Amino acid sequence: MFNGSIVALVTPMDSDGTIDIPSFRELILAHINAGTKGIVVNGTTGESATLSQDERIELLSAAVETSAGRIPIIAGTGSASTTATVHETRAATACGVDACMVVTPYYNRPTQEGLALHYTAVADSTDLPIIVYNVPSRTGCDLQPATLAGLAHIKNIVGIKDATGDLTRVAAMQALVADRFCLLSGDDGTTLEFVRAGGNGVVSVTANIAPELMQQMMELCLTGNFKDAEEINNNLSLLHRALMAETNPIPSKWALAQLKKIKTGIRLPLTPLTQPMHTLVLEALKKAGISISEEQCAISR
């Protein structure tokens, strides 16, 4: 079962949008050292929609090679098309990843039957574990708990990343799936309460910036120490919000650039973080105990 803090990793880029593989590898090594429990490559936070298939394969291959079995690599392989998703899933499988995360087909707005058939086809295309990803705010469709219950009977569909932010769903999903099935939050701001309600972890944007703190918080939650977990979460609360102040991953990539972990590149239609948001992100970093030099703060402001 997947649990704890799993990072939805950004894709580092040069200023011209070229993928920066050396920085990508460094980020993976940093997450291994921080205790992060898994890495999602080619997810929403990784700007997968703007990457070519060759680039997605290059990133997966680099991730698998760099991780060398020390941390699970989870490939984002979802798309609007079932045929394309099956193709991406098979390609990711060939790269040697440990699992695939498959977002509900966006824009098409399929019925619940269509969603069930979509995930069945994807699961049939690989022996790898499949994590369903439900994020209605981006996709325009919402996989219901009853539909998930049917999918949970498929051997290699092993969990869900739920980014609805609806905490009432945790108990509903938990009642409908087996113990082997993992429930992962896709919303950093409600993750503590998600796990308190019975969840197993988070696929986190905040972990890009504060990997050790996110994993520490998850470990405390999963051992029932919510008092200490709440203290960490309180320090991260402004960061959770700041990283969503503009479209993900705009704030995360800006923050990582200030921390000198990546360069400033981002691809259209996404654009760099707007000036009015700089102070908010810097204040959030400070509250979380993440330091940036005074010189860099002055430049950023």
Any overview of this molecule?
The relative contact order is 0.14. The longest helix is centred in the C-terminal third of the chain and has 17 residues, at 226-242. The chain has an 8-stranded parallel β-barrel, surrounded by 5 helices. It is globular. Strand 2 (38-41), helix 2 (53-67) and strand 3 form a beta-alpha-beta unit. 47% of the residues lie in helices and 12% in strands. It has 301 residues and is α/β, with parallel strands linked by helices. Helix 1 (21-34) packs across helix 2 (53-67). The protein has one domain: TIM Barrel. The chain contains 13 helices and 8 strands.
Number of helices: 13
Give the count of structural domains: 1
From the 3D structure, determine the CATH topology: TIM Barrel
Write the CATH architecture name: Alpha-Beta Barrel
List the secondary-structure elements in sequence, H or E: EHEHEHEHEHHEHEHEHHHHH
Distance between the termini: 43 Å
Q: Enumerate the spans where pLDDT stays under 50 for 5 or more consecutive residues.
A: none
- Please count the beta strands (DSSP E, at least 2 residues each): 8
Helix % is 40-55%
**Major sheet characteristics:** 8 strands, parallel, barrel
Name the CATH class.
Answer: Alpha Beta
According to CATH, the homologous superfamily is: Aldolase class I
* Mean pLDDT level: 95
